[in-house]
Amino acid sequence: MIVDTVLVKVASRCNLDCGYCYVYNMGDDGWRRQPKRLAVDTIAALGRSLRELASDQDAAFSVVLHGGEPLLLGPERLTLLCATLRSELPLGCTLAIQTNGVLLDDAVIEICIEHDVSISISLDGPKEVHDRARPDLRGRGTYSRVAAALDRLRVTPERHRLLTGVLAVIDPVADPIATYEALKATRAPSIDFLHRDGNHDLLPAGKGARDTVEYGDWLVRLLDHYLDDRNPTPIRLFDEMLKLLLAEAETGITSPATVGRLLIIETDGTVQKNDTLKSAHRDADRFAAPASVFEGRLSTFMRSAAFSEHEASQQPTAPACLACPYLGPCGGGMPAHRWAAENAYDNPSIYCADQQLLIRHMRARIGAWRAAA
Amino acid sequence: MSLQHPSSQAAPEEQPRLAAPVSLDQRTLDRLMAEVRNGATTEAGRYNRMHNRHNRS
């Protein structure tokens, strides 16, 4: 089992108050029990522990600095963290940061240049869409501050090279094409879209019922625009699924490819499950006896029954999923979106109907493309 | 036992009607097919299951 991504929660608090946030606004309050930011001794233990992991698995991985808002770590401790990781990790490991951009000033950018830390910024679309969804703690829109951060990243090629992408949460009320064009205008090399979190007991905003397709319709409209765009910016959500469908069309099978794993480390240095499970119910992302960077080896914990059980729980289990012709590219959706208090994760995703609509449309577009070739 | 979810039943493979003629200049599909032929695909379904809230493509 190879870890390809380590997500480190370097700060447990945030300077924004996004209504859809799975960390703060969906019932879990585990963040209150976490240190506000990585302590100096945790940084040292983290570096040591990740060095051991890279050695044990003999493979590099990406380390993503995440939160909360990771830049609440502050420039001094961010420098210490990056220097520690660069000193401990093999050359093949990459460092990245996922930030809301509000605190991304020149000093932070210089730290990222010095330690080769790539930057992805959360931006939901045009000003009115972004400000509606992503206010600060005083209720003020943050678009202008994020746009200024993006400007700072475009000042020189050296800075622009750090920008790996923008990440948007879908607003199904917004126009998908205007949203894409606004994100494309940032000149980020990649765009990603997230579905809003929810579950069978609490549907996300904009989704009327489990069998309605507001998000599917939104994505289909965007897909058509994207595929017809003569100067597109790659959309990861689409590309990952399209590649599986193209492989299927080419070879008759969806690709087995490389199996990699995600490891999440909390601000106190403990290992947690996929953090988005927080949106399902309180403490859903916590192991009963979590490993810690302060003791033992991460690779040992990853061979434990608890970790294996967590890994298995990520796989779809609902009979409808196991019999579904779309399971390959769909994957059954995020576990958090399968949750119901009645029967836990043994359900299709709340976005099942949306996914089916999107995959059917992708197949139709691929079929037309192959016929024209 | 999973919750009843009619839309998630194995559906017949229907082809939706395309709203407009498809452009022949499909550079995105060309690019992605080249990546597929170079072996650049991920584990089936992993992206949708393990979406981990960052963009480092």
What low-confidence regions of chain A span 5 or more consecutive residues with pLDDT below 50? none
Number of strands of chain A: 8
Helix content of chain B: 25-40%
Across the major sheet of chain A, the strand order is: 6-5-4-3-2-1-7-8
Q: Distance between the terminal alpha carbons of chain A, to the nearest Å? A: 40 Å
Helix percentage of chain A: 25-40%
Low-pLDDT residue spans of chain B:
4-12
SSE pattern of chain B, N- to C-terminal: HH
> Which band does the percent of strand residues of chain B land in?
under 5%
Shape of chain B: extended
Spatial gap, N to C terminus of chain B? 37 Å
Q: Assembly state here?
A: heterodimer
Q: How large is the radius of gyration of chain B?
A: 17 Å
Query: Which of globular, elongated, flat, extended, rod-shaped describes the shape of chain A?
Result: globular
Question: Which strand-content bin applies to the residues of chain A?
Answer: 5-15%
Q: Which chains have the largest interface?
A: A-B, 94 and 49 residues
The tally of strands of chain B reads 0
- Global mean pLDDT of chain B: 64
The major beta sheet of chain A can be summarized as: 8 strands, mixed
* Rg of chain A, Cα atoms, Å: 20 Å
Q: What class would the helix/strand composition of chain B place it in?
A: mainly alpha
